[in-house]
Amino acid sequence: MTRTNNHIDYVELAAEDLGVVKKFYSEVFGWEFQDWGPDYISFSSAGLEGGFRGGETPIAGSSLIILYAEDLDASEQRVAAAGGEITEHHEFPGGKRFHFRDPAGNVLGVWTIFEASE
């Protein structure tokens, strides 16, 4: 992976149970994981590399990680089927998105571009 100066390079999230988040994100988004001991897993195939710190409870904050999906409805269905909780829906000029809470309690968003004629 190429590193770019002053760009976001890595994202970490908290999770009490690493097995639960590994199963959720691999099923829903096809992410791949590497175990780094009992309390850490890293992920790839997500557009940006990152990891989950095990044994920690996520705390809701002001930052939001947003994924892109070509088929927003299909992504929402996969999130719900895998045990994610849909928490919000938004439409805005040129796009729409939903927010979800993963099984560990982290809140993320998924968005897509759409034309006004849709």
Order of helices and strands: EHEEEEHEEE
The tally of beta strands, per DSSP, is: 8
Content of β-strand: 35-45%
Number of domains: 1
Mean pLDDT: 91
Helix content: 10-25%
Give me the CATH architecture, please: Roll
CATH superfamily caption? 2,3-Dihydroxybiphenyl 1,2-Dioxygenase, domain 1
How are the elements arranged and paired?
Elements: E1 11-15, H1 18-29, E2 32-35, E3 40-44, E4 50-54, E5 65-68, H2 72-81, E6 85-92, E7 95-101, E8 107-113
Describe the protein's architecture and organization:
- By secondary structure, the chain is α/β, with parallel strands linked by helices.
- The protein has one domain (11-113): Roll (2,3-Dihydroxybiphenyl 1,2-Dioxygenase, domain 1), CATH 3.10.180.10.
- It is 19% helix and 38% strand.
- The protein is built from 2 helices and 8 strands.
- Strands 1-4-3-2 form a 4-stranded mixed beta sheet, with helices on one face. Strands 5-8-7-6 form a 4-stranded mixed beta sheet, with helices on one face.
- It starts with 10 loop residues before the first strand and ends in a 5-residue tail after the last strand.
What key phrases describe this protein's structure?
2,3-Dihydroxybiphenyl 1,2-Dioxygenase, domain 1; four-stranded mixed β-sheet; alpha/beta
In short:
The model has no long low-confidence stretch (mean pLDDT 91). The chain has one domain (11-113): 2,3-Dihydroxybiphenyl 1,2-Dioxygenase, domain 1 (Roll). Helices cover 19% and strands 38% of the residues.
